[in-house]
Amino acid sequence: AQSVTQPDIHITVSEGASLELRCNYSYGATPYLFWYVQSPGQGLQLLLKYFSGDTLVQGIKGFEAEFKRSQSSFNLRKPSVHWSDAAEYFCAVGVYNQGGKLIFGQGTELSVKP
Amino acid sequence: ETGVTQSPTHLIKTRGQQVTLRCSSQSGHNTVSWYQQALGQGPQFIFQYYREEENGRGNFPPRFSGLQFPNYSSELNVNALELDDSALYLCASSLGGTMNTEAFFGQGTRLTVV
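YS: structure for the whole thing
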């Protein structure tokens, strides 16, 4: 069965420090992978996506993610975190033989301290 | 902004009642997916509509039903509301029929069942 695991429920980093959010997936074929960000009480905004090709993908707001097939991982990174990055981050895998549904992880809440 | 609008933004209902949530998809998109996000959890796929027909369903009981209209807007109906139905309901629109598609989410409807 397809699944997504985000091992870290909550992470706190200092402003200006680097960030890495972990995501592991279970999927039988080449996955379509996504990272979304959600501010409190809001919908989801797409940060970046991986469909194929270069395994290092760039997204909005200075985020990037690297697809590692051997580790079934798609970790999100940012070299220097800003206070406005504080939010909930969700990793998701797209299941396109089931109507294109997204399977989300439980999310990682990011806090940024000054 | 994604161009996906949901109404209402907040709703309070009594257990046993019925509710209808609405979603207007982004211009040019023919696919709408609905997700339920309980507090502290990742979104869970309810179902998807593609060109007015259900095109995939998650693990939700039949009292969760939907419609998609010729203009590709959509409704989510929930009958016999239970306390556990309290959640943020998210609608996402996409261009179906292609593998390389991404979903754009609305701001959600916060449903509280008392």
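YS: worth flagging: Chain B touches chain A at residues 2, 4, 31, 33, 35, 40-45, 47-48, 50, 55-58, 88, 90, 92, 94, 96, 99-108, 110 (CB under 8 Å).
IM: good catch. Also The mean pLDDT of chain B is 92.
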